[in-house]
Specification:
With 267 residues, the chain is an alpha+beta fold. It has a single domain, classed as Ribonuclease Z/Hydroxyacylglutathione hydrolase-like (Metallo-beta-lactamase, Chain A, 4-Layer Sandwich). It is built from seven helices and 19 strands. The strands form five sheets. The protein has a seven-stranded mixed sheet with strand order 3-4-5-6-7-8-9. A six-stranded mixed sheet has the order 10-11-12-13-18-19, with helices on one face. A two-stranded antiparallel sheet has the order 1-2. The chain is globular, with a radius of gyration of 17 Å.
Length: 267
């Protein structure tokens, strides 16, 4: 039995004797099937050709894959009492990076922004004794590897630790989620967004899309909902989905002016 991994999006599927017929996440309009057709790999094959790459994300450790694989996002180790929270996920988990995290205090939970980054979440959880994986229940249909460690939550917010709040923003997916760390940035607050709010290349703005590869924008109602979801929270920094794509200062102001710019652009 093998846990097959989609080469295009990095999603790991439940143990099976043969690859799935297709990847529902890639067949959805927000993603796409490779031009060469559906392709599969597994964790052992990934380990033979790739490694986990660590980055310093303005004081937070990022975990990516080198050479780049699938969508190319990186996970983040959010400091927390009793161990880190792994924010978002990547398809590759290696013994080296597991040992590093354990030396630094271990992992107490996983939380993921949206289904494109579920990847090998179950293998990550199992590497740390089955820590909980916090996913919004509105995205339950996109879980390709059901597991007892998955803790579905519902509603608009959920506390997962001291000062750590999951916020349902919607938009990119129905259950799209943000993570607010009230203690981040020396008490000024950090907001972890995946690409539900995509940090732009100039790092002074964010933007919003239903599909990035297929250029489907979000409508005004969805963007206004995102703005309302983050309005109660104070945050200095915004951590995006990709290495070094972070708003380093005045994050709340950056999101507010980005919302205004986006709504003006779609008119």
């Amino acid at each position: 039995m093998t846990r097959f991994i989609c080469v295009q999006c990095g999603t790991q599927f439940a143990d099976a004797p043969a690859p799935p017929r297709a990847c529902p996440i890639c067949e959805d309009e927000r993603q796409y099937v490779r031009w060469s057709g559906q392709e599969w790999t597994d964790l052992e094959a990934l380990k033979a050709e790739h490694r986990n790459a660590l980055t310093d994300e303005d004081g937070v450790t990022g975990i990516g894959i080198a050479p780049s694989f699938a969508i190319g996002q990186r996970a983040l180790l959010v400091p927390s009492e009793g161990g880190f929270v792994l924010w978002d996920c990547v398809a590759l988990v290696t013994d080296d990076v597991v040992a590093m995290i354990k030396r630094r205090g271990g992992l107490r939970a996983i939380a993921i922004s949206h289904p494109h980054y579920y990847t090998s979440m179950v293998s990550w959880s199992e590497a740390f004794g089955g820590v909980p994986i916090h996913l919004h229940a509105d995205d339950r249909q996109w879980v390709m590897h059901p597991h007892p460690a998955i803790a579905f939550w519902s509603g608009e917010t959920r506390q997962i630790g001291p000062g750590l709040t999951l916020i349902r923003s919607g938009g990119h997916f129905e259950g799209s989620t943000l993570l607010h760390d009230a203690s981040g940035a020396d008490g000024k607050g950090d907001l972890y967004v995946g690409d539900n709010l995509q940090v732009c290349q100039d790092r002074r703005y964010v933007s919003f899309m239903r599909s990035y590869p297929n250029y489907i924008p979000l409508n005004a109602t969805a963007v206004e909902r995102i703005a309302a979801a983050v309005a109660p929270y104070r945050f200095e920094r915004v951590y995006g989905a990709f290495a070094h794509r972070n708003v380093r200062r005045d994050g709340k102001e950056a999101v507010a002016r980005s919302v205004s710019r986006y709504l003006a652009a779609i008119g």
